[in-house]
Fold Iron ABC transporter permease.
Amino acid sequence: MNNSSSTLPQHSWRVPKHFKLILLCSIVLLVVCAAASLMLGSRGVGFSEMMDGLFRPEIDSYEANIVRKRISRTVFSLCCGAALGVSGALMQSVTRNPIADPSILGVNTGAALFVVSGMAFLNIGSAEPSIWLALAGAGGTAIFVYGIGSMGRGGATPIKLVLAGAATSAALSSLVAAIMLPRAYVMDQFRFWQVGSVGAGSWSAVATIGPFLIAGLLIAIVTAPALNALALGDEAAAGLGVRTGVLRIMAAFAGVILCGATTALSGPIGFVGLLATHVMRLILGPDLRYVIPMSAISGALILTISDVCGRVIGSPGELEVGVVTAFIGAPILILLAIRSKVRSL
């Protein structure tokens, strides 16, 4: 993949207007959301108690210990949201589909099928083997959906990819149910994971997902300039020196490892990638050098806010974050489909 930055139209390389202000506001919102995640839940704590829990380890009060237990969940939520946001941006760019998302294209369901198969047939319940199963399932499903969506006249159009993803997701969901129903122990283990939740977030989970998040984000940032060229069309990108086949494989690989690792640990949480990327495109424009890293921030914001809302609404229990994101994301998906008429990017 050659360096095409010097040959791309100059207007696509301008810094978005007020970018520094937008970045600063996003970081402030991220800090506020993280604080809300530490303070709110089935048992609320005050600001001073949160500060005690964070910065005064000698204090051993009940409220300070609650805050300390919530730190790992908050960090895990931020990591998962960032991974899903970047994954959504990559999938939309690779497929040139404005409503592409790991959940819409069936990638989450493919990861779920492999995870539940590992639970049922291989007695796998720990995080590390589940991640590799989820990556295999997510990658295989992505290849299958893209292959089906590319058949026929016009190639991989947005509407064909969405239909292929929906059909594949429905078929794989049926297989997941067929594996679970005769096995009560698998159903008990799988049912909470299937909804999508960050409630099991721990420092070991953060350490497990961290390398995948870093690797996927680095690949996404490195490929962003060439993905800008890909938005002009394959022929135009090739004319600018971009090896489109290699680029698609690299970007799709990054999207799959981000989505697969997150799905393995938190379940198939939908719509975060769709919402995060569209918000950033609306604010910043189409330049992926800015959209991709900012999608990580907006994805972290969306997932953390949804987790806090689920805990507040479901108090004294909690409403799983996957339910909250689906409730918010489904109407927005319908609105986007109506407004864009499923145009290509």
Remarks:
- The two ends are 21 Å apart (CA to CA).
- The CA atoms of residues 105 and 165 lie 4 Å apart.
